[in-house]
Structures are given as C-alpha cells and as structure tokens.
Amino acid sequence: MSVLAxxxxxxxxxxxxMGLTLTWLSLIVLIPLAGLFxxxxxxxxxxxxxxxxxxxxxxxxxxSFGLSFAAACVNLVMGTIVVWALVRYRxxxxxxxxxIVDVPFALPTAVAGVALTALFAQKGWxxxxxxxxxxxxxxxxxxxxxxxxxxxxPFVVRTVQPVLIDLDPEIEEAAASLGASRWHIxxxxxxxSLTPALLTGFALAFARAVGEYGSVIFIAGNLxxxxxxxxxxxxxxxxxxxxxxxxxxxxxxxxVAFVIIFAVNRLQRWAQSxxxx
Amino acid sequence: xxIEMTLQRTPDGSARSLAESAARRDPRAEPAIxxxxxxxxxxxxxxxxxxxxxxxxFVEAFGRGVVAYLSALADPEAxxxxxxxxxxxxxxxxxxxxxxxxxxxxxxxxxxxxKTFLITLxxxxxxxxxxxxxxxxxxxxxxxxxxxxxxxxxxxxxLFAFPGIALATIFVTxxxxxxxxxxxxxxxxxxxxxxAISLGASGLQTFFRVxxxxxxxxxxxxxxxxxxxxxxxxxxxxxxxxHIRGETNTMPLLVEILYNEYQMVASFAIASLLAMLALITLxxxxxLERNIDGDMPHDD
Lengths: 277, 300
Fold this sequence. Notes:
The complex is a heterodimer of chains A (277) and B (300).
Chain A: H1 14-40, H2 45-52, H3 55-88, H4 94-100, H5 103-106, H6 109-120, H7 127-132, H8 141-166, H9 169-177, H10 182-211, H11 214-220, H12 230-239, H13 243-276
Chain B: H1 2-9, H2 15-25, H3 32-61, H4 66-74, H5 76-109, H6 115-123, H7 130-141, H8 148-153, H9 162-172, H10 176-188, H11 191-198, H12 203-232, H13 235-241, H14 251-260, H15 264-295
Helix pairs in contact in B: 2-3, 3-15, 4-15, 5-9, 5-10, 5-12, 7-9, 7-13, 9-13, 10-12, 11-12, 12-15, 14-15
C-alpha cells in the first residue's frame, strides 16, 4: 500500500491528478528553486560570507529590509484605519474605496512604478508641493518607502477585514454595559482579537515589499549604497555575469522569505486555536 | 451581519449626522469626531496612494492629445509587445488551469497525509521575489547554467526567447487557479460526485457534468487573476527576456524601455492599456466573488 493511498476511494482520478500535480510542481517550482540552493553550494562558506557582507550587498539588504519594515508599519496603522472605516462606518463611496484597496494587487508593477514616479517627481502633482517644503521624494530612499507602502496596502486590510466583520458584537456590548469606556473596549477587547490577523497582514506586506522590484526601481534613483534595493542588485550582478554574487543575495532573501511563511503559518494556527477556545 | 443591520437602521445623511445619531443609540459607536477623523484619514490615504497614481497614468497618456496616444499604440514595437504579452498569458493561463484543476481535485476529493504541506508548496511562488523567479531559470538554462551547454549543443533557445518568458510567467502565476478552487471545492465536499459515480457515471462524465458546473465561477476567478498577473509581470520576465527590441519585450518591459528613453506619451499609452486591464479585472473580480459566494454551500 502506498503512503499516499487515499482513505476515501470511491472517486476516481487520484493517481492521475496527484501525479500531474507533483510532476508539474516539481518541474516548474521545486527543481528550479532547488537549483538555486545547489548553485550556492559552489561557493565556500567564506566566499558566501564575503559576498553577503560586502559593503554594497549589505547596504542593499539593509535598504530593502529596513524600508520594508518601516513601510509595513505604516501599512499596519493605515490598514487598520482603512479597514475600520470600511467595516464599521457608512460613507459615500464606501464600496468604491473597498474595491480600490485591491488596485495594488491588480495594477502591473511597472505601471505603478512609472505612475508613482510621475506623481512624486519634482514637477509632479505631489512632488511639486513637497519640493516647495524642501522634501525630495523621487530618486531618494523616501521614494522607495512610498512605493513599498503602495504595494503593501491590500495585505493588512484584506487579512483583518473578515475577522473584524465576524467579531461577535455581544462582547463589545457586554463590556459597554459593564461601564468600560469606548477607548478601553477598542484597545483591550477588539484589538487583541484582531492581533493575529494584524500580524499576518504585517508579515505579508513586509515580505512583499522586500521582494518588490517593478514598482520600486523607477522611483528609487538606484544609487549604490544609498537607494539600491537588493532585488535590483541581483539584476545588476546578473548583467555583469557575476552569477555567484546574484545567487548568494537571492539565497539570503529566500531564506528570510521562508522564515516569514513559516511564521505566518504558525500565526494562523495560533489564531485558529484562539478562535476555537 | 448584525453590524450592517445596526448601521442600516440609521437614516441616510452626511457622515457626521449619521455618526451622531448612531453614537446616541449604539453602545459600540465611537464619538462623532473620531468617526469623521477615521473616515477622512482612510479616504485621504487611499486617494493619495491608489487613486492619484491611477489617474496620473491616463493624464500622462493623453497629455499630447488623442492622436499622439493612438499613434503611440499603432507603433509596430507596441504591437509586437502586445502580441507577445497575449501569447505568454495564453500559455500561462492554459497550463496553470490544467494544473490547478488537477491539484484541486487531488487535494479536495481525497484524504492523504501531508496535504497542508503540499498546499504550502503550491503557494511558494507567491513568496519568492519576482527577480529571483527569473534568476532560477537563468541558473538552469543560461550559458553558465546547468542545462546551458546541452541546450547550446542542440541549438535550443530558452532564455531571451518565448519559452523562457513563458516559463518565468508560469512560475509566478503558478498558485492562482489552485488557490481559487481549493477552498471552494473543499466546502462543496464529495457527495455529489460520489452519487454520480454510484449511479454509473464515468470519472470524466462526473467531472464535466457535476464538478465543473459547481466550480465554474471559481475557475473563471482563478483564470482572471492568473491572466492579470501574467500580462502584468515585470521583474521575473525582465530577468529572462534579454530585452530584444520588437522580439522579446512584453508590454510591461516596453513601458520601462520607452520611459527610460523619455518617450513619456508612448510609455504611458502602453501603461494605460495595462491599467485598463487591471480595472476590468477588478470589476470582473467583484462580480465573480458574488457568484462564488452563491456556490458556497451554506448551513442555513
């Protein structure tokens, strides 16, 4: 008996569909990704360390991870405000704004990139007034930060929205009838129940921003050590045929991405166990 | 549900009066000033970060008038990019549709150990940076790659050609159809299929006559999102394309090239086509979500 033998066997097609799934998954996803890790073993540990800790690589990783973290924090706060307005209040255009939240998912990243750059360039609609105040956005790290906020908007909103909608109103009513202030109820009763979803949204927004390329490179300026993100450095190393360097940077980014998936899976399981008790 | 009902009871009016009347009756309401502040902040944030970038695409595209816009789109290079993008999207959607249906059938109609892990593996491409998604294929098929020398000996071109662009796109759009179908088919269970089989239907008959009608909106939903991402993918395709003019530039890559050459009207004209694709996708998605909700079995 195979390990994969299904318990329910009245339906046909398990062997065929499972075989197709595993074959295609291996050919398209697993083998190519494994190839990257195999390639990185061409490097000795010392070589790997030298590449990853070289000034330019380290700067790029710091810029990518640091600004992604900052952007995810903004998305956490603004996402909470947006989701609260969308779920709890009625206002004109609410359904339209609800649909608009998904635009960063749907808009091709290159289009977002050129649009944000046009908007925040020194003569742009928002860039001009900001320049008058002495703030330069396009072609600076601030531009990267703005693009990363854009790309992360849907994550916190869409992970928290279903939880906030399903939140049992009786808990809030009970707390209110016991004399708790509204501020107290929101911070001590509602926010704790939203915490797993908030953290999940934060982690997803962070992971997306770290890997983001298209919407960032147009507005970034791409100055080595200043406004050069890690994915761009991979592209540059590839164009210089420095495959080892590109592979080493990619391995660092992938490992972090996998740690985040693992953490998110844990979070979801924790949230489910919280919800069932 | 009860939140909606509580709020629908209040008479329609400005946000302020609505907030005030609700504040008096509803113990779960914030003070009016807080409500107005939150709504204002939410609208301002979404307007600046989402609405304005969308608007600027069309304003820039039509900045020199409709004639300049249309002549930019009539350029042979634009046409070649549009054809390539459509071709790549067709191949990616087709293959991922077959895979998504097979994966969803295996995962939702049978029990086996490691199911959660398999779903995690299918989701993997979503957490890989687009640039790395392209890089893995360069490492496989590039001149210094694992299969590079063999491909050269046999005169096969994968990188900097259609197959490489299609492979990278299939990788980044890999989870979409399976993701759309798994929760839906999980909810629907296996009873209808089991009944069909016990009444003597063949496996294929059961799939096409029983399963497919139940999941058709879910299939369309997956295809829609897969297609939008396939046509719009930039990072992964940029790494494997080689940017050969008139040959291996997809629409998003052409946006970049024209932009870097300061051909703003032409760049934003192509960008406006992609933005329209995104808007149509969102509208269709909203409609499909309502239909899928109807296909979900409900307890009541």
